[in-house]
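Exercise: predict the fold of this chain.
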Amino acid sequence: MSLPSFISMYQQLIAAPSISAIEDSLCMSNKGVITLLANWCESLGFTCEITELENGKGRYNLLAKRGEGDGGLMLAGHTDTVPFDDSRWNYDPFKLSEHDNKLYGLGSIDMKGFFAFVLQAISELDETKQTEPLLILATADEETTMAGAQQICRHPDLKPARCIIGEPTDMTPVFTHKGHMSTAIRVIGRSGHSSDPERGLNAIEVMHKMITKLLIIKEELKNKYSVEHFEIPYPTLNLGHIHGGDNANRICGCCEMHIDMRPLPGLSVQELQAILLTAAEEINAQYPNAVSVIDMHEPIPAFSGSTDTALVKLAEKVSGQPAVAVNYCTEAPFIQQLGCETIVMGPGSINQAHQPDEFLAMEKIKPSQAIISNMIKASCFSEYTQTT
């Protein structure tokens, strides 16, 4: 089997739906994408290992390797995409569409398209000059639980020296980023007729007390913690969704709010969880067992990196751009647990991620391919000549 053209790979990846979502009804298997990638990797001489996630549900990781021993470079990405609102798309999300010098499609930059860049770059290199192991990692469920990355970081025989995670950064190296927590605050009150408030416990009123505490926590986090590398230098707390009650003349028996928190490097997930639990305990002292704090998914820690590593310095040299910190999060803190120098750097702009009519600007294809190729050559090949 020969490797398809770059555009053909892109088309086939976009045409293989692989949505992951918290709602089970929206979830899809990523097996189609994994099968495509495994076949293409094998055509380039890679040995492939496909592993179903421990929670099953038809989601798989792919680890492909060419070369022997530890070390080398791993190129990593996720195979799933976010759900989409068909009414807001002008193009078929599952068909690669070219218009106005843009390639449209769900996953075009976030981030199935990255694999087409990687495979195209590897296919143009002389395998006989490869001196270090070359690995390709394709994970499942990054957009929800990051279960794929959490499982792969426990792999007993995976020890790359370097890893590039190809999230859309416009090929700017990212050396650190914030974490992510999605938490449900649930208040269980006691329903009753609104004409006799004392016979019930209004969950909305109790939630109001919890919100007051959360807003104080929000300001305390902003004033206590700061990392200058970030555009938003403090941890953030967002009150994102709330629902409670069912009728104006009934005492509300249940109210639930969903919040989003973004910890900085150096601020642990456990510390933030403890802060929330303490706030809930203070209210529960007045209203026993009324407030619960529930993680909506496994919290994602911040990615703590440094600008001093050899990989960051190489990426800055090859890309011509200084490494930066970003507010969103990726699989980097889990991949980093393998002991490898890790950066986030890939084609496409984060501004298009999770947006209707997601696209890759075609004028960025050649320069992005050149950077990826140079990063691979510098890490794994004996003859490195930077191309532009």
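Check your answer against the key: Residues 23 and 144 are 10 Å apart (CA to CA).
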